[in-house]
Write a structure and sequence with these properties.
The protein has seven helices and six strands. The radius of gyration is 17 Å and the shape is globular. About 50% of the residues lie in helices and about 15% in strands. Strands 1-4-3-2-5-6 form a six-stranded mixed beta sheet, with helices on both faces. The protein has a single domain (about 30-190), classed as Glutaredoxin (3-Layer(aba) Sandwich). Keywords: Signal. This is Thioredoxin domain-containing protein. InterPro entries: Thioredoxin-like_sf, Thioredoxin_domain.
Length: about 190
């Protein structure tokens, strides 16, 4: 009986995820501009933005923390007049997840800027590409953890001044206010 309940719970979770992806990919947005990036291009974007800070927020449509924290990332960027990009972690060639993510993002904010990690630099396997990217982008003073739903803040010189991890949520990943007020805002108000 216990195994049957676990199987039912697992199948329900998979169905819910599949439905969420199906809902977001039903009508792909064909007028989308997605900027392929690597660590050097991200630095260049920050330098050329004309803003004091640039925020890249790592995102996968399948990632619950990514979806939960995204509205806060958008608000943070607007409140602090930052250049803002959602950085897709899935492979450029993974049309199912890229299309799903794009449609999800444009439903949330039709003016959102989207970037994606370059396949030719980072490969196509999500965890490996994210690990390589996070290793490149994370300065030595920050802990290098290759998680998702990551805030990456760069200054006007293209220097990374903040890279967050799951540890920055103080034990409660749903408490986005803690990470914003205690980790990111102090960097933005220096």
């Amino acid at each position: 009986m216990k195994h049957l309940l676990l199987l039912c719970a697992f199948l329900c979770t998979q169905f819910t995820f599949a439905q969420a992806v199906a809902d977001t990919t039903a009508k792909p947005n064909v007028n989308v501009s997605i900027k392929p990036v690597d660590a050097a291009i991200i630095s260049k974007v920050a330098k050329e933005s004309g803003k004091k800070n640039t925020l890249f927020y790592t995102f996968g449509v399948w990632c619950e923390p990514c979806r939960v924290h995204l509205p806060t990332a958008i608000k943070l960027a607007k409140d602090y007049n930052m250049e803002f990009y959602v950085l897709l972690v899935d492979a450029q060639s993974n049309t199912k997840y890229i299309t799903g993510a794009v449609d999800y993002l444009y439903k949330l904010d039709p003016t959102i800027k989207i970037a994606v990690l370059k396949d030719d630099v980072y490969g196509v396997k999500t965890n490996k590409r994210n690990k390589k990217f996070v290793t490149e982008i994370t300065p030595p003073q920050f802990e290098n953890i290759d998680d998702f739903s990551k805030y990456i803040v760069l200054d006007s010189e293209g220097k990374v001044v903040m890279v967050t991890t799951w540890k920055d949520y103080n034990g409660n990943w749903k408490d986005n206010d803690y990470i914003i007020q205690n980790r990111i805002v102090p960097v933005l108000t220096k």
